Each structure stands twice: as C-alpha cells, then as structure tokens.
Amino acid sequence: MCEPVAKVLRKEGYKPLMAADGIEAFELYKRRLPDLVLLDLNMPRQNGWALLKKLANSIRLPRLSSSLVGRISLDCLRSRASGP
Q1: Which of 8-15's residues contact partners 24+ apart within 8 Å by CB, and which partners?
Q2: The domain 2-79: what is its CATH number?
Q3: Cβ-based neighbours of 25, under 8 Å, separated by 6 or more
Q4: Given CA atoms 31, 48, 18, 45 in this order, what sign does their dihedral have?
Q5: Helix/strand/coil percentages in the chain, nearest 5
Q6: What is the spatial distance between Cα 61 and Cα 78, in angstroms, rounded to a whole number?
Q7: What does the alpha-carbon distance between residue 6 and residue 13 come to, in Å, rounded to a whole number?
Q8: pLDDT tens per residue, range 24-81
Q9: How many Cα atoms sit within 13 Å of 27 on the Cβ side?
Q10: End-to-end CA distance of the chain
C-alpha cells in the first residue's frame, strides 16, 4: 500500500519517506522532521496508534491533525499512479 501512495506523491512533486514499521517511522521522523506524516494504524512492531501518541507528544510537532479514513481504493491509487 505504501508504494502506490508514494508514487502519487512523487508525481505531485513531493519527496516521500517510507518506513517499514512504527519504530522506524518515529526514528525517521526525528531525523528528517517531515512536513506531513501519513501512517497506517496496523503497522508491525509499533502500531499507528502508539506512533500517533508519540508524535502528538513530540515537542517538534507544532500541530497534529489526524484523520481516520476508511479503506482507500487501491484501484483508485493505481490509476492515479499510472497517469492519464
């Protein structure tokens, strides 16, 4: 799921960073301080809920907004990633 989203973001001019799990994601966050964090709630080793709590408690994050979206259609993402 991560790569199709990253491909769409790259096409829009963003530079996505990806992590394999919640622990790696938090370490990456601390090193790179991204402008936006998109996360999966069902990540291995440390789930998205735990990561969201750590991000919310981080002094480096001026504002945190979360959105729980239902299943994103992979077909929709694939069609955007493959282009017109």
Answers
A1: 8/77, 8/80, 8/81, 11/80, 11/81, 11/83
A2: 3.40.50.2300
A3: 19, 37, 39, 43, 46, 51
A4: positive
A5: 45, 0, 55
A6: 31
A7: 11
A8: 989 998 898 888 888 887 888 888 888 888 887 876 654 555 555 555 444 544 555 4
A9: 7
A10: 20
Task: Please state the domain extents for the chain.
Answer: 2-79
Integer angstrom CA distances of residue 72 from 21, 25, 40: 19, 21, 11
Retrieve residue 47's tokens.
């789930």
What is this structure's pTM? 0.66
Residue with tokens 């709630």: 41
CA dihedral 56, 63, 4, 71 (to 10 degrees): 70
